Amino acid sequence: MLRSTQLLDEEQERELEHEQEAEHEKELPGRAKSVEHSISDDVTEFLRTGRMNGIERWALKIPLTLKNTSLWSSCPLDSWAKNVYATHDFCNVIRLSTSKDLVDDFLRPVNWIASFEQPDQEKIVLLLLSPFEAESYFDLFRFGNECACSLHMWAPRVCTDQSTLFENTALTMPYNPNRVTLSGQLKSILLIYSGSSYFENEAEMKEYCYFTGFCPRPWGDEEERLFNEGEFFIFRSQWLNL
What we know:
The protein has about 240 residues and is of the alpha+beta class. The chain contains 10 helices and 5 strands, in the order αααββαββααβαααα. It has a 5-stranded mixed β-sheet with strand order 1-2-4-3-5. Helix 7 crosses helix 8. It starts with a helix and ends with a helix. Residues about 235-240 have low confidence and may be disordered.
């Protein structure tokens, strides 16, 4: 009995040493100075009225938010939806010493999204907000009397059967019984950008393939031709022409 106890203690000690070594191997990002949060009058105007005048001044299209990351060199700008933006307060997390500095370790997670439905164009404009902005505009969204946009929560799908929360009307402000539905393209962009790891259904998987350029089998004659010509990735513009 004593011998068994000693063997168990030794095994537990070895496991603990292994865990400690694994913890020591973690590489933390270097020091950086944070950017102070700010509220933009243009963002406020958009949330109140839905007007997008001069939006390039106060927001960035989604692919441009990756400019100071290691993904930038392989990021096809024309594959992203044109109506998904992020505020400067969402994008600016740390101060850059030089234009070549990378912010891979300091990307802000996607948690809050403002949506505006354009009735004349029948499309939705999405604007990623920082937690600071979401809190600052809380009363504007909650009462909704002077607000043209809706505020949604978002959670990347990191396990099976997990909701992204966006289409949950109970978590949307102001409350609207008519659920805002994302197109397959918009949802795939948000899933990829936020770091989701699982698909809800086959339609989401196909949209993921469309966006990333993967062409799953079975193939038709045109896909076979492109593959034989060395086109191992087929981007959305080519998909739409197939």
